[in-house]
Write a structure and sequence with these properties.
- The structure is a homodimer.
- In chain A, about 15% of the residues lie in helices and about 40% in strands.
- By secondary structure, chain A is mainly beta.
- Chain A folds into 2 domains: about 45 residues, no CATH class; about 130 residues, Nucleoside Triphosphate Pyrophosphohydrolase.
- In chain A, the strands form 2 sheets. In chain A, strands 4, 5, 6, 7, 8, 9 and 10 form a 7-stranded mixed beta sheet that branches. Chain A has a 3-stranded antiparallel beta sheet with strand order 1-2-3, with no helix packed on it.
- The longest helix of chain A has 15 residues.
Chain lengths: ~190, ~190
C-alpha cells in the first residue's frame, strides 16, 4: 500500500461480520429463488433480510472494438417493456471458460469473434439482493463468425464511433449501470494504451 | 442530432415492440414479487420471461465531495455475505423529492447535509429483470447534520482523496456497477468544471 492507504485510516475500521442464524427459501419460480436471511449484527441488532438467488451462473459483457467503432446492440428488456441499447452480454455455461463464453456470446449476438480478449473488471450488481457478478471484457481484432443463439429476434447492431464514445451517455436508452461502467472502463483502458 | 447521429444509421433500425399477451404473479415474498410475462415478438416468436417487482420506489445514490475527499461507506450486503465499499444510497419515500431524499440519506448514513446537489444521471439495473432505477447525485458544500436512520449498526465512513479517485477501482470491495458508474460520472463532472 505504501503512502496511499486511505482504507487503513482509523475512520474506516471494518466491522465484525453479522452472524447468520437462519436461511430459508420463502418463494420460488422457474428462474428465481427468494431467501429470507435471519441475522444478528455484532452489536446485537437482529434483522431479517431477503435476497435473490438466480441460477448462480456467471455473466459476461463484451465491449467489441472494430476499427474506429465500438459495437452495441438493441435488445428487448421485459421489465421496462422497451428496447435497451447496450453491449453484447450473456451467461457463462457451466465449465465454460469466461473468455470462451465472451467470444461465443459475440458470435451469437453480433456475428463476430475476437482474436484478442482482455478482462477489464468484474462487477457486482446490488449485492444486498444478488450474489451474481459480471465480467467485463474488451474484444479486439475481430473476425466474422456467426453462431446461432437463442434470441427470439435478430438483434439490431449499432456501431458507434470511438471518437464520440461519451455521447452514448446522452442516449435515452443507454443507462444501465453495467453498460455505463463498461463504457468508462473501456475508454480508460483504450486511452491509457 | 446534426452530423453526429449513428443511431439513425440503417443498421440500427428499431424493432416493433413485442406484444404482451399475459402477465401473472408466480411467486411473492415480503419484499419481492415475481411476474411471468408471456409475449410474442413482431416476427411471431413466442417467449415466457420472468421479471421482478420490488416495492417500486425510486432509489438515489449520492457522491459527497468534502474538501479534497469524496466520502464513502462500508455497509453489509447480505447476498454476498460481506461488507461493500460504496457511496451512500437509499430509497426515495413516497411523494419525497429526489434531492430531499438524497440529503436525508446523507444525513442518516454519514451525518452530513449538502447545500449543493446536482443530478448526474439516472441509471437502470438489469432492465430485463428489474424496472427500478437509481438517480446519481453529486453533493457539495456539506454541513454537519445527523439524522437517525434504520441502519442496524453504525456505517463505517471512508473518506477517499479526490486526487486518487480511480484507485477505488483497485479495491476488492468496490466493484458494484452503480458505484463504479457513479465514480466515473462524478469524475467526469468535476473534471469538466
Amino acid at each position: 500500500m505504501g503512502i496511499f492507504s486511505p482504507g487503513a485510516s482509523p475512520m474506516s475500521k471494518t466491522h465484525q461480520k453479522p452472524k447468520i442464524l437462519n436461511v430459508e427459501t420463502v418463494a420460488r419460480s422457474r428462474m428465481f429463488r427468494i431467501q429470507s436471511v435471519n441475522l444478528i449484527f455484532s452489536n446485537g441488532e437482529n434483522r431479517v433480510y431477503e435476497r435473490l438467488l438466480p441460477e448462480g451462473r456467471q455473466a459476461v459483457m463484451i465491449v467489441p472494438v472494430m476499427n474506429d467503432n465500438i459495437l452495441l446492440i438493441r435488445e428487448y428488456a421485459v421489465a421496462i417493456e422497451d428496447y435497451e441499447l447496450g453491449f453484447p452480454k450473456g451467461l457463462v455455461e457451466p465449465d465454460e471458460d469466461i473468455l470462451v463464453a465472451a467470444n461465443r456470446e459475440m458470435m451469437e449476438e453480433i456475428g463476430y469473434g475476437a482474436r484478442k480478449l482482455t478482462v477489464l473488471s468484474k462487477l457486482t450488481l446490488a449485492p444486498s439482493y444478488f450474489a451474481s457478478s459480471m465480467t467485463i471484457v474488451l474484444a479486439e481484432d475481430l473476425y466474422e463468425h456467426r453462431l446461432e443463439g437463442d434470441e427470439p429476434e435478430p438483434l439490431t447492431l449499432v456501431p458507434w464511433p470511438r471518437s464520440h464514445m461519451m455521447k452514448l451517455l446522452e442516449q435515452h436508452d443507454f443507462n444501465e449501470a453495467r453498460n455505463v461502467s463498461a463504457l468508462f472502463l473501456a475508454r480508460e483502458y483504450l486511452n491509457q494504451r
